[in-house]
Amino acid sequence: MMERKDRFKHESIQDRKTIQSLITAINRGIAKGELHFSDDTGEITLNPDGMLNLKVTASKDEARCRMDIRISWANENTDLKDAGKLKVKS
Which residue range or ranges hold the Amphi-Trp domain (predicted)? Predict the structure, then answer.
């Protein structure tokens, strides 16, 4: 869903396998330095480079679980916060 020319947002219901494929594509795009996102309403291309800021949040209550992964970077050098090494177990 395109909100502005420089912003892309998409929300949909997917199964685990499809989400895994999308995350794999994001992984490849980060490695390559180019991420292209698109759907029926818009598109955007991002070029991750240099140091990236990673933010992971996870929560669980009786009715719902949620995990958010945010990766951001500046187009120019800036000071980034560092909370140490992240550990993820599967």
Answer: 2-88
56 contacts: CB under 8 Å, gap ≥ 6? 67, 68, 69, 70, 86, 88
Q: Rounded to two decimals, what is the model's pTM?
A: 0.75
The number of domains in the chain is 1
Q: Which long-range contacts does 77-83 make (Cβ < 8 Å, 24+ apart)?
A: 77/50, 80/51, 80/53, 81/53
Q: Tell whether 87 is covered by a domain.
A: no
**Whether the Cβ atoms of residue 34 and residue 61 lie closer than 8 Å to each other:** no
Give which of 37, 35, 50, 31 is closest to 11, Cα–Cα. 37
